[in-house]
## 1
Amino acid sequence: MSEDATVTRAFGGQSMVEPLRRVLVRPPRAEDLSAWRSYGWLDAPDSAIAAKEHDAFCNLLHSLGSEVLLGGPDNGNPDAIYACDPALTCDDGVILLRPGKEARRTEPEALEADLVRFEVPVAARIEPPGTAEGGDIVWLDSETLIVGRSYRTNDDGIAQLANALSDVRVEAFDVPHVDGRQSVLHLMSLLSPLDRDLMLAFPPLMPVRLMELLEERSITVVPVPEEEFATMGPNVLAVAPRIALALDGNPMTRKAMEVAGVEVHTYEGEEISRKGEGGPTCLTRPILRSS
């Protein structure tokens, strides 16, 4: 690909750490947040404060160099603000996933309408009986995709991802049961890439084979302390190599990242993150990452 094509393209990037150029978010709406209980949120969100938090989050993304794309609604679905889960970005466009949480099955269709508006092609789709959610899927590098086999991402979904990404090594790892289906973990509940050779993670729950793979790749692990695991310490969005966006309120994790040479920016997310259990990676669907 020519340098001009790289500069002008509107989508792509098989990475979690290259500079985040375009990112899709879905603003919270009062009429959707009112269904919080049926979607398993921890507490009732204040819709006015949630809107302010989300606006500030978007402004921070913009200040860090990202073009922020506002997605349309998925009516009645408070989880739709977690734009990561219905899709995966690859060099050919976006793969529409199929959420394992049945109440979220309408999100890929809503996202597809956004992709048409923003001129982003659909590269593939996960079809029944496959399920896959973006929170379980991590680009380790441009040729390696690691996928969490969880209650939300099944074997068939992983096989379909591998088929759609035939030139990519797709490695699956079991995600721990912990509290089970009602308080499900994604792979990114346990880890977040910070750079090509740096990973934030909670080692006590990491799959052994995945820890061995990180060691094999000479990827250093920045450990999240046990006290900050439940408050989404491991859930951090890299907006560029060693520049991270994190939920406010995990000071030990922030200090550990800074000691490792990471520039950390934080946002207030009591309503949009803590109550719905979705951190900065959950709130964003990267559309373009490029150097």
## 2
Amino acid sequence: MDESVEQLDGRRVRGDRTRRAILAKAVDLASVEGLEGLSIGGLASALGVSKSGLFAHFGSKLELQLATIDAAAELFEEAVWKPVAELDAGLPRLLGVTRSWLAYFHHDVFAGGCFFANAQHEFDSRPGPLRDRIAEQERRWTDTLIALVQAAQRRGHIRADIDPKQLAFEFDAAGTMGNLWWQLNGEERAFDYAGSAMRRSLESALTEAGRALLDDGS
């Protein structure tokens, strides 16, 4: 490889690493102060760097905000999806995802609590590219929950007459409320309550094969 190409590749790697470090800080700041409170100047101050240095990575506040949403999505996937990637499809993976999701809330992956729960409240009635990007991430989450329920149905773990959207909604509602009780009230048993609510919804939807899996601790 030509030496100049090697040097260029090295600069790109360092640049990517720097950008990831910047966005990790941006995600934490936005989870506490809100996306609207995130600015290139404020982020530069928090990082102890110049504004001009950050402009090399993000040309505008909007670009920074959108990149921060995408970075938060990557962290969410790392915390929620990676731990269950090797689980069997169907009920085991559905259960694994709901458990890792509650653990993600409880372990405070972001400094200010769930980035997306906060951002949804901040932008749910404010049309524009930020709301669209946040809504896209929420759709990805709910669509995946629905797909997991459908996969469990195809494997005979959940009854065919169950509406996958309804069950996904009940799971989502329980987890979201658990997070609210945890963040707002410091309720220590918030995620126990959320897990119990999910289990009750699930138990009413299972086939005999699904019950056997659940009883085996899957």
## 3
Amino acid sequence: MACIFNSLVGVLPQRRVRLAMIKFYKTSGDKLNRIDTAEEGCWVSAIAPTEEELLRLSTEVGVVPEFLHAALDEEETSRIETEDGQTLILVGVPCAEKHENTVSYTVLPMGIIITSRNILTVCLKDNSIISDFADGLVKNAHTDQKTRFVLQIMMRMSARFLQYLRQINKITSYIEKQLYGLLRNKELIQLFDLSKSLVYFSASLKANEVTLEKLLRGRVIKLSEEEHDLLEDALIEVKQAVDMGYIYSSILSGTIEAFSSVRSNNLIRVMKTLIASVIVLFIPTIIFAFYSMNVSGLPVPFFWFPLTLSVAAMLVAGIVLHHKKML
């Protein structure tokens, strides 16, 4: 089983150990560079910020404090808010982490804050979407083009959902093949975990779809024709991910139910066989106990008779139970 997980790790973002920090990036030419302080037209990335760092962002960058805290609540759902000329776009982003020979998938809220000067992203954990932008893997990402930069984040988020859904489907197919030979608790537990991940994905994707549709109306932020097309592409991918998540979730639920039924049937068969074996093996005990009593007048009081009777009775009982498909 390790081989399939190792193959998936090649396309999973490597987990990075980062302290709570704030980083600043700004596009110079066609390259995204790291800078030391916030400047006009820069992108501010906050990963698991502390209270002191939140205060710094609020005072130095001028971000509404409520917007900063919204993205740090794991229970928050996707939505759009506007206050004091600033816009908060809260979306759910997929995260994948490898643990030994398993991969766990979850969804975390990420806040995208648009101010008059900057773009900020706030998230509880480092994720592949932020890492792709920070590492310069996203082409034509210009921090001074705030609306386009936000839409590129949306596009990357949609593509990542699709990628992880395909990975979940591959892992599910592999586990199913392993379970055909032998039902084991470990594989069933992994299927349950994947089913839970699909539920989280589906709920987050539906909320993200509603958020993108609000953005598409153009009431929250003004969109050019090119930006409108880019947002439509992101929305199409989100809808595709919603459909894929629903299909995979239905298939996985049916698979888990089928394997659970097989497991129950196997248990019933084992219990039937065990009961039938006990019945057959208990026959000699009854006969020999009867002949061991200190009572006169027993029929054929010789040693060979109860032995022969026991064997005959066991054969008859075995044939009857076999006919009843209990043996």
## 4
Amino acid sequence: MQLSKQLSKVDHRRTDRLQALMMELEQARYEVRLASRRYEAVDPENRLVACELEARWNASLSRVRQLEKDFEKAEAESSVTQAVGIDERLLLAQDLAAIWDAPDTDSSIKQRIVGILIQQIIVDIDETKDEISLFIHWTGGRHSEVRVAKHKRGQNGRCTSMEAIDIVRQMAAQYSDGEIALTLNRLRLKTGTGNTWNETRIRSLRSQLKLVHQSTQGNDSSSNLNLEGTAKRLKVSGTVVRRLINLKILPGTQVVVGAPWQIAVDDVESPTVIQAALRLQRRKPLAEPCLQEVPLPLPGFESRQDTSTF
């Protein structure tokens, strides 16, 4: 990160110098125009004043020419890559990933890094394998080859990622389009055009993949409940259900990380889960003996167990 900061400071100093020279040059050009108007407006018979104004005009023109030379020189120097020593290159190589992924590393810094580390890239097309091969000649004499698949005819780079497609395939048979869209957005996966997901886009992708649609799960008549359905069944908050899952009291599964929870109705109706849910809702500790000894009935379920303990 130290080298990245140094490069960034150098770039900022060069940019500031160019901006200062440009502003000074614009001011000098304005003074030339002003001196020209004053000279042209003077009475030719007043030779003393005319000579003084002409001298000022010539001085302004000389200053403009000098500033233009200074600006061209500074602009040429800014386009030349600063020499980087071997120690700085080794430091850059050791911390390259951190520098490249840092949020404060802008594109100009990355371009300079590429210019320092890479001498030449030779691109070739392998028609037999439909691949593009890139031969990278690194500074120091090493070489490496990278191969990427060619786009097929009619194909472009604005395609949905395979990760998003795999998630849709796994969830299509058990979740609604809205739940799938929420999951993909929660995982920060975008469409091929860089948009967020919604039901319409999921429906379109599912149609292209020829995946069967499944309505929303989690109602009382289903064998599995989602987190909201479980909270409604237990008459507690969703936070309590998450705590039950995290504490391994209530078994729950997810098709993928970020997907809605799948919780079996039989597990929800377990006396242990019912006890724990009511205790967490009332902010009581779970380590009391009665947790294992006296099961509590869930409102709405038929049970004749005694609840006088609580």
